[in-house]
Automatic annotation (TrEMBL):
Disulphide bridges: 300-327
InterPro entries linked to this entry: ConA-like_dom_sf, Integrase_H2C2, Laminin_G, Neurexin-related_CASP
A Pfam short name: Integrase_H2C2
Keyword match Kinase: no
Record CDD domains: LamG
SMART domains documented for this protein: LamG
Protein name: Laminin G domain-containing protein
Transmembrane segments: none
Keywords annotated in UniProt: Disulfide bond
Length: 328
């Protein structure tokens, strides 16, 4: 299902029609009719993303150089990973990233590196590309969009600081109900914690690990982990969840099934958090979750309700959000 979900993301930007064709009208392919008589493989160099004269001009203005660099075709290049890469002057780095990002359909960090790094080089290229992609306006959510069921890619999230939401998370009791579908076995669904996390810091989370839902929290005197291990939920189907906490005690129910319970140790019984509520993932997910999670949800969320009757408007209530689309 994860493979199908990734393909659905790739084709979602196109407008196309699907037409049904009976199998009886198709002709079975065979080697003789499909095999070409002859073919030639032509290796063509990649199309340059920047004008060579413009690079030379700004290299001269900035006095661009690097250890072990040399000139080729009028520009400074440096050998990296066996390739002669053009050193990009500071004045052209944003232009290069912008051109590449728009030309190839707003790809992610890994694809951007594959497109840029074989030809070009500068110090901190990975950090600069990561920051450019992260803050691309087109890639970020526009909170005015009305999406009832947002879809998350594993690198997406919605973040809420609305006091009506936050006050229903912290304190000595909690009631969360939601629907979700997941196309992957691992991913964070929900997180509320401190801006500066530590082993003793308060937090509360819902997430998937190896296909099973985990409900986990720390009220300051130790963690509790409640695992719903009777039902895998990474099948791409919609599932309903109810997670509750009254002081140290917590419960978890999926699809109206059996109730699983647990309790945190110690005497502290209130959740004290100051970093709002995240849904579907969060930025710096590994560090903020203390390596409990390394990616967000690959799937969709809907009908998120707090305190039995407060329905979160997933898009319009969000303070910020990244890489959100409508659920397919």
């Amino acid at each position: 299902m994860g493979r199908l979900f990734r393909w659905s993301l790739k084709v979602s930007m196109y407008d196309f029609d699907i037409k049904y064709k009976k199998g009886s009208t198709n002709i079975e392919a065979d080697m003789l009719t499909r095999h070409p008589i002859a073919y030639h493989i032509i290796n063509t160099p990649p199309e340059p993303l920047l004008d060579i004269n413009e690079i030379s001009h700004f290299q001269n203005i900035e006095n661009t150089s690097a250890p072990k660099c040399f000139k080729r075709d009028g520009v400074f290049v440096v050998k990296r990973q066996g390739l002669a890469k053009i050193i990009v002057p500071k004045a052209l780095r944003v232009k290069l990233m912008e051109t590449t990002h728009k030309k190839f359909g707003h790809p992610g960090v890994a694809t951007m590196l594959k497109l840029i790094s074989p030809q070009y080089y500068w110090i901190n290229i990975i950090t600069d590309i990561r920051n450019y992609v992260k803050y691309c306006e087109t890639c970020q959510i526009k909170v005015t969009e009305m999406i009832a069921e947002p879809m998350f890619t594993g690198a997406s999230y919605l973040h809420y600081f609305d006091e009506n939401i936050v006050k229903r998370i912290r304190g000595n009791k909690l009631d969360i109900r939601l629907k979700f579908r997941s196309f992957g076995p691992n991913g964070l669904l929900l997180w509320s914690g401190k801006k500066e996390m530590s082993a003793a810091a308060d937090y509360l989370s819902l997430g998937l690990k190896e296909g099973y839902l985990h409900f986990q929290y720390n009220l300051g005197s130790g963690e509790v982990l409640i695992v719903y291990n009777s039902t895998r939920v990474d099948d791409g189907k919609w599932h309903t969840v109810k997670a509750t906490r009254i002081e140290q005690g917590g419960t978890l129910v999926i699809d109206g099934g059996i109730l699983i319970s647990g309790a945190s140790p110690g005497i502290l019984n209130q959740l004290n958090v100051n970093n709002g509520l995240y849904l579907g993932g969060m930025e710096s997910i590994a560090s903020l979750s203390m390596n409990k999670y390394h990616s967000g949800l690959v799937g969709c969320l809907a009908n998120v309700t707090l305190s039995t009757n407060y329905h979160i408007r997933l898009i319009t209530h969000a303070t910020t959000g990244i890489n959100i689309q409508a659920c397919l």
